[in-house]
C-alpha cells in the first residue's frame, strides 16, 4: 500500500458501505448530491443535518477541476465539522462521481481524502468494463474506500458525461458483473437520464421498475444506484425564465416514481441538475429583485436558500430518509 495524503476518516468522513446497507434494510435511499462551490456544499450539508439524513457529497471530474483538488479535503472537513457542531450523527461520504479512469480514482483516494469512488466504464464493452471496475475495486479496498460501477448506459449530457442512446441494464448480466468486479454498489440504467433536458413535454418520462425488480431478484440485498434522477422542478424552471433565463422544454423523472424506487433495493439516488436549477433560480431572482446588487454574499446566499429548501423537501418526497439519523440543531 502507498501512503495517503489525507485519510478520509481523519476528515470525519465515512465510506458508503454501512450507509447503503442501512438504507436497504430500512427502505429509503441515501441522498447523493453534487456540489461545485461553498454555497452549494453549505446548502446540502445544512439540509441533511436538519432532516437527519445521511449524505454522499459528490464531486464530478469537472467539479474537481473547478474547485481545485487540493481544496476538496478541506471543504469536506468543514462539512463534517459542521455536522459534529450541530449535534447530529449523520454520516458523510465524499464520492467521485463518474470517474473516467483508474488514474483519477487513484488520485482521489491517495491525495484528496475521498471515501468512495465511482468508476464509470460503461462506455466500454462488457469485458473491458469488468476489468477496469475490478482494478479500481481491488485498489480502493486496500484503503477501505468503497467503489461504485455502472452497467448500462444513460442518455443525456452532464459535465463530461455524454451519451446519445439509452441502453438498459440487462438483468442477466448483473450477478456476473458484481461477482467478477467485487464492487460495493451498482449504478443501473432503467430510464433515468443525465442533465436538465432529459425529456420533451410530449414524452412520458418513467423508469422501468420491472427491470429494477428483475435486477433485485438477481442480486438480492445488493445496493443499487440511480443516476440522472433529477425531476427538473418546474417551479424553478419558471422562476429562471421569468427572471431573464431561458430553460425550455425541460422535464425530468417524477418524484413519485423515484420514491417508489427508493423503497426497493435502490439505496442511493444521484441528483445534480435539480440543485443547479434551484440555485440558479435563487441567484436570478436576487438580481431581478435588486439589479444594483454586486455583493456575491447577497445573491449567492439566495441561491443557497433556494437549494437548501428544495433538498429538504426532496429528502422527504423522494428519498424517504428524514430521521434516519439524529437531527442536528437548525441554524438560520
Give a quick precis of the structure.
One of its GO terms (molecular function) is aldehyde-lyase activity. With 332 residues, the protein is of the alpha/beta class.
Describe the structure.
- The protein is of the alpha/beta class.
- It has a single domain, classed as TIM Barrel (Alpha-Beta Barrel).
- 45% of the residues lie in helices and 14% in strands.
- It is globular.
Kindly list the characteristics that best describe this protein.
14% strand; 12 helices; 10 strands; alpha/beta; globular; TIM Barrel; 332 residues; eight-stranded parallel beta barrel; two-stranded antiparallel sheet
Instruction: Assign the CATH superfamily.
Output: Aldolase class I
Q: Structural class, from secondary structure content?
A: alpha/beta
- Tell me the total number of β-strands: 10
CATH architecture field: Alpha-Beta Barrel
Broad CATH class: Alpha Beta
State mean pLDDT (0 to 100 scale).
91
Number of helical stretches of at least 4 residues: 12
Q: Within the largest sheet, what's the order of strands? A: 1-2-3-4-5-8-9-10
CATH topology: TIM Barrel
Number of domains: 1
Given the C-alpha coordinates, what overall shape results? Answer: globular
Distance between the termini: 44 Å
Q: What is the topological layout?
A:
Elements: H1 17-26, E1 30-34, H2 38-51, E2 55-59, H3 61-67, H4 72-85, E3 92-99, H5 102-111, E4 116-119, H6 126-141, E5 146-151, E6 156-158, E7 161-163, H7 171-181, E8 185-188, H8 209-218, E9 224-226, H9 234-242, H10 255-262, E10 266-271, H11 273-289, H12 296-319
Parallel strand pairs: 1-2, 1-10, 2-3, 3-4, 4-5, 5-8, 8-9, 9-10
Antiparallel strand pairs: 6-7
Amino acid at each position: 500500500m502507498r501512503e495517503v495524503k489525507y485519510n478520509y476518516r481523519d476528515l470525519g468522513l465515512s465510506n458508503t458501505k454501512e450507509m447503503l446497507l442501512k438504507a436497504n434494510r430500512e427502505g429509503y435511499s441515501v441522498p447523493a448530491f453534487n456540489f461545485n462551490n461553498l454555497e452549494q456544499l453549505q446548502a446540502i450539508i445544512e439540509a441533511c443535518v436538519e432532516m437527519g439524513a445521511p449524505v454522499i457529497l459528490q464531486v464530478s471530474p469537472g467539479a474537481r477541476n473547478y474547485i481545485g483538488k487540493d481544496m476538496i479535503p478541506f471543504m469536506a472537513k468543514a462539512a463534517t465539522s459542521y455536522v459534529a457542531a450541530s449535534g447530529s450523527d449523520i454520516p458523510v461520504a465524499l464520492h467521485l462521481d463518474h470517474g473516467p479512469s483508474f488514474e483519477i480514482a487513484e488520485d482521489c483516494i491517495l491525495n484528496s481524502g475521498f471515501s468512495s469512488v465511482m468508476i464509470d466504464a460503461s462506455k466500454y464493452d462488457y469485458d473491458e468494463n469488468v476489468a477496469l471496475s475490478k482494478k479500481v475495486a481491488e485498489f480502493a479496498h486496500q484503503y477501505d474506500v468503497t467503489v461504485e460501477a455502472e452497467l448500462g448506459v444513460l442518455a443525456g449530457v452532464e459535465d463530461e458525461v455524454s451519451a446519445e442512446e439509452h441502453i438498459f441494464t440487462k438483468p442477466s448480466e448483473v450477478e456476473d458483473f458484481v461477482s467478477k468486479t467485487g464492487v460495493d454498489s451498482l449504478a443501473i440504467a432503467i430510464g433515468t437520464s443525465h442533465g436538465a433536458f432529459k425529456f420533451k413535454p410530449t414524452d412520458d418520462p418513467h423508469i422501468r421498475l420491472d427491470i429494477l425488480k428483475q435486477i433485485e431478484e438477481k442480486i438480492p440485498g445488493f445496493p443499487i444506484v440511480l443516476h440522472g434522477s433529477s425531476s427538473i422542478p418546474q417551479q424553478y424552471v419558471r422562476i429562471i425564465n421569468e427572471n431573464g433565463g431561458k430553460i425550455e422544454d425541460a422535464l425530468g423523472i417524477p418524484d413519485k416514481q423515484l420514491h417508489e424506487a427508493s423503497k426497493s433495493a435502490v439505496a442511493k439516488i444521484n441528483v445534480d441538475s435539480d440543485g443547479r436549477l434551484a440555485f440558479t433560480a435563487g441567484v436570478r431572482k436576487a438580481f431581478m429583485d435588486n439589479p444594483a446588487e454586486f455583493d456575491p454574499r447577497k445573491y449567492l446566499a439566495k441561491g443557497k436558500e433556494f437549494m437548501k429548501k428544495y433538498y429538504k423537501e426532496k429528502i422527504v418526497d423522494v428519498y424517504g430518509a428524514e430521521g434516519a439519523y439524529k437531527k442536528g440543531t437548525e441554524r438560520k
